[in-house]
Design brief:
The complex is a heterodimer of chains A (105) and B (859).
Chain A: H1 4-16, H2 22-33, H3 39-51, E1 55-59, E2 72-76, H4 78-95
Antiparallel strand pairs in A: 1-2
Chain B: H1 2-11, H2 14-26, H3 32-47, H4 56-73, H5 75-104, E1 115-122, E2 127-128, H6 132-141, E3 145-154, E4 157-159, E5 165-166, E6 169-172, H7 176-180, E7 186-187, E8 202-205, H8 207-214, E9 224-227, E10 230-237, E11 252-255, E12 272-277, H9 283-300, E13 307-314, H10 315-320, H11 324-355, H12 357-365, H13 370-406, H14 421-443, H15 450-456, H16 466-498, E14 509-515, H17 524-539, E15 544-550, E16 561-565, E17 579-585, H18 589-593, E18 597-600, H19 605-609, E19 615-619, H20 620-626, E20 636-639, E21 645-653, E22 668-672, E23 682-689, H21 697-707, E24 713-718, H22 719-726, H23 728-762, H24 764-772, H25 777-806, H26 822-848, H27 852-857
Parallel strand pairs in B: 6-11, 8-10, 17-22, 19-21
Antiparallel strand pairs in B: 1-2, 1-12, 1-13, 3-6, 3-12, 4-5, 4-9, 7-10, 8-11, 9-10, 14-23, 14-24, 15-23, 16-17, 16-20, 18-21, 19-22, 20-21
Helix pairs in contact in B: 1-2, 1-3, 4-13, 5-11, 5-13, 5-14, 6-9, 11-14, 11-16, 11-23, 12-15, 13-14, 16-23, 16-25, 16-26, 17-21, 23-25, 23-26, 25-26
Chain lengths: 105, 859
């Protein structure tokens, strides 16, 4: 089962789609979940997810507005999607019948 | 930004750093704070991951994370330690922020070490101001003086534009600013030809006065302004950075303009002499030369000197002379508190180390190197010290303004006191030292032969720290004793001081200064009429019982003394004539002040209104001095030196404390206002009220102002407030020492409690065995209390010995109490003894309730 940060970051990477690197992932999480994570936290989570094979990364083009630094963009692997599904399934089972507003619609 | 990038690129793997740094650059408009926070977070999250590299920084960051987690997990320990350190470091920083500019920092002038005051040395070794002729001779004859200046007090009234206002100033001879090595920011300095009688119609303003009263108007240079109703030309304005250490409150300087008789006297001592010694001449040579010059003057004018050579004191030493002992005592006190605080935190660390022995043993068994474990402990100490330091900075920031507000206004360089880098540096140094101490003390034990302990399967006892912890507690008690004794002595001094009989009734008195400066008051008659009118009008106010006018007030810091001579017994050397406080008063003075007339009578109505019968009252001490044992009534007295007028003594008044509650008593004499040589343009109005005197302040000010709105009304204060100001320094000392002593007591008690509680917890088994073998709860309590009692007794003995050695440095704070006052010592010992026994009782009770069967089974 995925950790909470891992879920949030994985979902954000999926939402951003193309060119998912630190800044857009951060902004997506802030916009959707209202959480202001630091870039350090995001990259740490992404590195951990990559170690687990749940995301894959590729190097983007260097741009001048980044002072000549390349971006490292992430995308969710099949294993990543499965891990999310497994997590959500587990949550659904745990919440079933509780009638506390936790049932996914 | 650049620093952050440098840091990130050095410490992170390149593929990671490129992403983060790129993101930071992309988002740089979010500001510096965001970048720093993100950098820290990136370092924290991306660097300390295991296997992300090795080396010192990595190890340190890992240690720091562990330390932070440990602190979070024991919040009580963290909060107590950080608060203890924070308060102590904060207090130390605040005191150091005061000490550094006042005592240590060189004066803000070029080559300040060459600036000296030159004094005449009296036969009793005390020093005295110089007369103008003496100053002139020094300047003419000395070859060691580069520049020299005479300084005279000046309290001018500024009128003309705006409300009339009295300010502090100095009259200075023309080289004054050259001596200091500063130049006006606008206009020019004084010239030699302006420093002669009649030509000295020029003034230089302070930056503050120029801004405040003249709106920083640059065209002020060359304009005349009305000072004491004289048109004086402004020739210069000093820069804002100019700090006038010689008289901190001076706001305006006028050329002295003495030069010849009658100002060029030798027997008058109303000028301070400041000089800059030539760079090539040593201070010792200069001292010898000036001393010899002065001895030649003494030989040439034997009847005009009673002094014994001359001496010089550096301006720096002179500026701090009055406050140095007090500030040093405070520094010592705050350092004691810091020591106690550190001892306490080390103690807590040790107690924690005992509980963590197992952890360290396992880590050592798993192959951790000793250096690694010590490093971990050092990091924990560093983290605690840093948190304590940060808390300390907050404490210092909050407390320093309060402290500055209460410091005596006469403190030199008061404006230069800030929470500055020097204090910060001192604190950082202290903090780093603390980190090492706090880290290493627990490291001494647990990282030793723990593997053996672990193998032996024995329960770890932590016994090895007991000696250290006991020593720390003994030290804390000793230091607390010293602080308590100091605070006790100061408190008793203050009580004694406030019990001093001032010779009059200071309650229900309102005082204010009334002035009669300007063209309307050139002759005496209108001045007297003005005083009479003010007195009558104020006396008619409801709530006023009596009103008097006098030229000065007791205990208000006035010095106005004249020689007193028995014309039938004139001393050969006028320098040996005693001086008395000059009181030129209205007939209502004694009844208003409630000063008793011991013999004879008060002035009659005719004596206060004309000069046909010149009379005087003298204080009992003055009568005793001039006519020991004889009846002074009817004797003749000459006031104001040899050339003064003779008067008849008609009464003896009770002695009054003039200089201060703690100063040597002086002699006083009283003459009616109209019988003195001339009217004083500056008088004190004294109002006795039926109720609270401050309630009448506004209405008194209003009616006085209505009589002549052109005159400034200043120093409106109740007599209680004036006395309060004169004891303010001691009260500040009492508050500070009291706070330090209370903190020390609390910390010492906490220390004793901690040690005993820890020891009881560890000795549960032993105590169980004892009770199983028949020891009663009483015996067990005695055992624990005895252990605590021994520690506190040793501490008390050391503390009392230390106090005996050190309290003499408190002399400046003491009054009517010796530095080894037995009452204080006994009281402190009793208090500490009682409190420490109370601290022992809780762990002792816990020990007495140990259930032997459970204690034994738990093994």
């Amino acid at each position: 089962m995925l950790g909470e940060l891992e879920q949030v970051v994985l979902l954000a990477v999926m939402r951003v789609g193309k060119d998912a690197y630190g800044v857009p992932v951060h902004d997506e999480i802030q916009r959707r979940a209202g959480r202001d994570l630091t870039l350090g936290t995001i990259y740490k989570t992404l590195t951990r997810l990559e170690d687990k094979g749940l995301v894959a990364s590729y190097v983007g083009a260097p741009t001048t507005e980044r002072g000549g630094r390349r971006t490292r963009c992430y995308m969710v692997t099949v294993a990543g999607k499965r891990a999310l599904q497994a997590t959500f399934k587990a949550l659904r089972h745990m919440a079933a019948g509780l009638d506390v507003g936790l049932e996914p619609t | 930004m650049r620093f952050c990038i440098w840091l990130l690129e050095r410490l992170l793997r390149p593929e990671v750093s490129a992403s983060v740094v790129g993101d930071l650059i992309e988002q740089r408009e979010r500001g510096a704070f965001w970048i720093y926070a993100e950098t820290l977070s990136a370092l924290w999250n991306l660097h300390t991951r295991p296997h992300s590299g090795d080396g010192l920084v990595t190890t340190f960051l890992i240690d720091l994370r562990i330390a932070a987690r440990l602190l979070r997990r024991s919040p009580a320990f963290a909060i107590v330690s950080v608060l203890t350190l924070g308060l102590a470091i904060g207090a130390t920083t605040a005191i150091f922020s005061v000490i550094e500019p006042v005592l240590i920092r060189p004066l803000p002038y070029p080559q300040p070490e060459r600036l000296v005051f030159v004094w005449e040395r009296d036969r009793d070794g005390s020093r005295d101001n110089v007369g103008y002729a003496t100053f002139r001779d020094f300047m003419n004859e000395s070859r060691s003086i580069e520049y020299g200046a005479a300084i005279g007090d000046w309290q001018p009234t500024l009128s003309g534009e705006g409300r009339p206002e009295r300010v502090s100033g100095d009259r200075v001879s023309w080289q004054y600013f050259r001596v200091l090595g500063v130049r006006p920011e606008l206009g020019r300095d004084f010239l030699a030809e302006e420093d002669v009688p009649g030509q000295n119609q020029v003034v230089i303003l302070s930056h503050g006065l120029w801004e405040r009263r003249y709106g920083a108007d640059r065209s002020i240079i060359g304009r005349t302004i009305s000072i004491n109703d004289n048109p004086l030309t402004v020739i210069g304005v000093m820069p804002a950075s100019f700090d006038n250490v010689a008289s901190p409150s001076a706001q305006v300087w006028r050329a002295l303009g003495y030069a010849n008789q009658p100002f060029a006297c030798r027997t008058c001592h109303h000028l301070r002499m400041l000089a800059r010694i030539r760079p090539e001449i040593s201070l010792a040579t200069a001292t010898t030369e000036l001393d010899q010059i002065h001895r030649r003057m003494e030989k040439a004018y034997p009847n005009e000197y009673a002094s014994d050579g001359a001496s010089i004191v550096t301006m720096q030493a002179e500026a701090t002379r009055e406050f140095r002992p007090a500030l040093l005592a405070l520094t010592a006190a705050v350092l004691l508190v810091l020591l106690i605080a550190v001892a306490n935190v080390v103690n807590l660390q040790l107690a924690r180390a005992v509980r963590r022995e197992e952890e360290f043993a396992i880590r050592a068994a798993l192959g951790a190197r000793r250096s690694r474990l010590v490093g971990q402990l050092l990091t924990e100490g560093l983290l605690l010290a840093l948190l304590g330091g940060a808390a300390g900075l907050v404490v210092a920031r909050l407390s320093l303004p309060i402290l500055i507000d209460r410091l005596p206004q006469a403190l030199p360089r008061l404006s230069a006191i800030h929470l500055d880098l020097a204090a910060l540096g001192t604190v950082t140094a202290i903090v780093l030292l603390l980190a090492i101490v706090m880290g290493l003390a627990p490291a001494r034990g647990p990282v030793g032969d723990l593997g053996i302990n672990l193998r032996s399967g024995r329960r770890l006892s932590g016994g090895r720290h007991h000696v250290t912890r006991a020593a720390l507690v003994v030290g804390e008690v000793a230091l607390a004793t010293m602080l308590l004794v100091s605070a006790g002595l100061i408190a008793r001094s203050l009580v004694r001081l406030l019990a001093v009989d001032v010779g009059f009734d200071p309650t229900h008195l309102l005082t204010l200064e009334i002035n009669s400066a300007g063209a309307n008051y050139r002759s005496d008659a209108p001045v007297f009429a003005y005083h009479d009118r003010v007195r009558d009008v104020v006396a008619s106010l409801p709530g006023v019982t009596s009103v008097a006018v006098a030229n000065q007030l007791p205990l208000a810091g006035n010095v106005d003394m004249y020689g007193v001579i028995d014309p039938d017994n004139i001393p050969s050397n006028p320098e040996l004539v005693p001086s008395g406080d000059r009181y030129v008063v209205s007939g209502t003075y004694f009844s208003t002040m409630h000063i008793p007339i011991l013999r004879g009578r008060n002035f009659t109505a005719s004596e206060t209104s004309d000069t046909t019968n010149r009379v005087a009252l003298v204080s009992a001490a003055l009568a005793q001095r001039l006519w020991p044992g004889a009846n002074p009534i009817g004797k003749r007295i000459r006031l104001g030196g040899l050339k003064g007028l003779d008067r008849v003594v008609v009464g003896v008044a009770g002695n009054v404390r003039h200089r201060g509650l703690d100063a040597t008593s002086t002699l006083q004499w009283y003459v009616p206002e109209r019988q003195w040589a001339g009217a004083d343009n500056q008088e004190v109005l004294i109002v006795r009220t039926a109720g609270d005197p401050s309630a009448l302040a506004a209405s008194v000010r209003k009616v006085v102002a209505s009589i002549d709105p052109t005159q400034p009304i200043v120093k409106l204060a109740t007599m209680d407030q004036i006395i309060g100001v004169s004891t303010a320094q001691r009260r500040l000392a009492l508050v500070l020492f009291g706070a330090f002593a209370a903190a020390a007591l609390l910390l010492a008690v906490a220390g004793i409690y901690g040690v005993l509680a820890g020891s009881v917890a560890e000795r549960t088994r032993e105590i169980g065995v004892r009770s199983a073998l028949g020891a009663t709860p009483r015996d067990i309590i005695g055992l624990v209390v005895g252990q605590g009692g021994r520690l506190s007794t040793i501490g008390l003995v050391l503390g009392v010995a230390g106090s005996f050695a050190l309290t003499r440095y408190l002399r400046t704070f003491l009054f009517g109490v010796g530095p080894t006052d037995p009452t204080t010592f006994v009281g402190v010992v009793a208090l500490l003894g009682f409190v420490t026994v109370a601290a022992c009782l809780i762990p002792a009770m816990r020990a007495s309730r140990v259930d032997p069967s459970r204690a034994l089974r738990s093994e």
